[in-house]
Records
---
Amino acid sequence: MKVTGIRTLRIKGGSFIVKVETDAGIHGLGESGIRFWGASIERAVEGLSELVVGQDPFGTERLWQRMFRGSFFPADGVYSCAISAIDIALWDIKGKALGMPVHKLLGGPVRDKVVCYPHCQGPTTEALVENCVSKVEDGWKFVRWGQPETSGRFEARGEARLEPVESMRLAVEQMGQVREAVGPDVQICFDVHTRLDTAHVIAMCKDLEPFKPFFIEDPLRSENPGSYRTLARQVRLPIAAGEQWSSKWRFREVIEEELVSYARIDLCNVGGLTEALKITHWCETHYIDIAPHNPLGPVSAAACVALCMASTNVGVCEMPKQPGTFDTDLFPTQVEWLDGYSFSNDRPGLGVEIDEAVAESRADSGHGWPPTLRRNDGAFTNW
């Protein structure tokens, strides 16, 4: 079997799907992780196709090495996203060709199901609490939301304010009310989203300790993983990080020095299943659990669940919406979900298919940028 072609499907709403086709009539689906770089990633996929078309799709490790190192300079950012999508699609092909779900190719299931957390939200603290309670009533065992804006919420002109000290106070208020509303058994994940500096994060985490969050996510910017040394010495809450790191090498310091409790591996950004599996096993040697970053669609979700089904060191998996309740016209088959858990069934490959006619009707050629988040003095801060 040989790869005969690679197609990209950029879809309104943010999905960037890659379809790898073979001469055996078997195709695989992958997904790319940085929605706002779609045009650049599309060109990267086109370039990488020169290395992949004509090759055996079962050679995932060889193809990964060729794509990552093939131009002398190691791949990063845009190219890592493109590699991720192609690699995931190749694993999907392997599973379909063998008539096996991908998690069985990764070593077989070590669990029956994967606990997941949804995205909770609300324009006010009261609305956030109501949304969290609603998720718990729907069966979720976790709730999660992010560092709150202090005005605007991106509603006017795509811009909002986040003044650190005000946002810190609001975050403590929100977590206190959510904890009281959902009780002690529901786990809370809180995403700082790299919006604060080190001093602010340390101070806020001390105030959040009484509410016993499951983890504090992305408390710092990602460019310098070594900065987690300072944080780890002074914060007593579990730290989760890694969604912006695009290879195993970016994870090196925080794994080897055990600076995080949860590795937020993004399979659609880090280099696909081939690279994510290596990072996962590396984390296992340091008793670090994975908490896959999955803010995307059903293809990403299926890849994350497959990895978690076959890995012993799993904390929780991100699942923004309940599978099977959204985009069902575009993705008529998705991973399974029941009472806060997702799981892979025995469908070959990833177990996800796309309706290409719907995808074409929702084709998106735009570029786009995320909203702007500023402090009260007008300084730009991380979205």
---
Amino acid sequence: MKKDLKNIPTFKDEEEERAFWAKADSSEYLNWDEGDVTSFPKLKPSTKTISIRIPETMLNELRTIANKRDVPYQSLIKVFLKEKINSEFSRTA
């Protein structure tokens, strides 16, 4: 059964569009069954440099673990943080 789709409004700027899509159900405006799967291999997420103070012993432990896994220690920290973030979100969902 084909569903009648609503017309996507015209937005004055990106901020207005972002606010709209944050509240709207996109399936009322787009037929996702007609969409194409695509990938963006050169698209990299933006990163922000931060400064964090951690005990020197903890940093040494992280470096040891990273060395055993043959990965840079900063990458390992990001993996550990992401795992914990995912765990927290799944716990509260």
---
Amino acid sequence: MKLLIITEYFPKSSDVEIRGGVETRCFYIAKELAKRHDVTVISALEPETPRDQTIEKIKIIRCGRPKEYLQTGGVIQRLSFMKEAYSIGCRLDIDIVEGTNFITYIPAYYIAREKGIPNIAWYNDVWIGKWTHNIGLVSGLAGEVLERFALSRDWSCIIANTKFTLNNLIKQGKQRERLEVIPCGIDLKKCNNIKVEKEITPSICCVSRLVRYKKIDTLIKALYYIKNKIPDIRCRIIGTGPEKRRLKRLAEDLGLKKNINFLGFVKSHRDVLREIKRSHILCLPSVVEGFGIVVLEAMACSTPYVCSNIPALREVTKNATGGLMFEGGNPKDLSQKILYLLEDKGLYNKCVEEGAKLVQRYNWESIAKRTERVYEWAIKQCYRPKS
């Protein structure tokens, strides 16, 4: 097959510089499928990246106005990317096209309609009715409009990453026979090959975009309580975003400046995994997650997790296998769950063993094959966009 995947961001090299689950999934699906098919990825142009590039047999075309990685805003740059992605896609010789988020659904849909080919929407989470609460009024209103428009289109198939997302798509009126559930995965081999010992000092790692709904402030407040029992507790926060200044100020106000290290964006995915593996606990305090790949990566790195008790994470972890869950937004409950793991060696080892077994089902090779079958089905069924 000749496949086109459109994603707003894509790694710049085989080191896999990624900042979110969408990019992770796009890279590994493209990498696996490129072993058997002709795969092209259209992505937004970031500063100091080539417009045309090949990584792991994946042909990459970057377009639109150059822009840094954005959490919100960037309306002009994003519109430029959408317009140019559509123009480029229409000129390619392809059999099927996939969009991967709200910025890419529209160009993917109209490329398919122009060329008379099937289209796929990969869906991470349904945010209808939640946009302004999650990211603010201006960007939220734009996101609400884009998502409602995208879901009103006639897709050959929508791939949901969890049953939770699938059920929310059905609530929005999508036909069950055009929906498929395929989870994300992890690079088990890469996790296993990283050789690093756990630190002597108790430590926590958090890998997250620094945006409001990720609730990093809950973790910082929890550390304030933990410090009373473990004065030398260490926490490394990997990620960037508009909340960074506020979070650093909060850490200073709570007397945690020496306990928390904000590492910012860590370029190499292998280095991110190394930080997770040498830590005692991975914390994901987010109350909005479509999947939570980093929790699976923690289990593959023999690092138990503590994460928010929300539907997507309950599903992915099979009800807290390999770690513990806390009441989202409750720093006291989070601190208690972290202390349980740090103080109870039997519980800790049990989580390590259970997590190692669970993650075996989340390997990219088998997930790519499932995705491949969906593409083949869509082409065979000749489902084309109608409106």
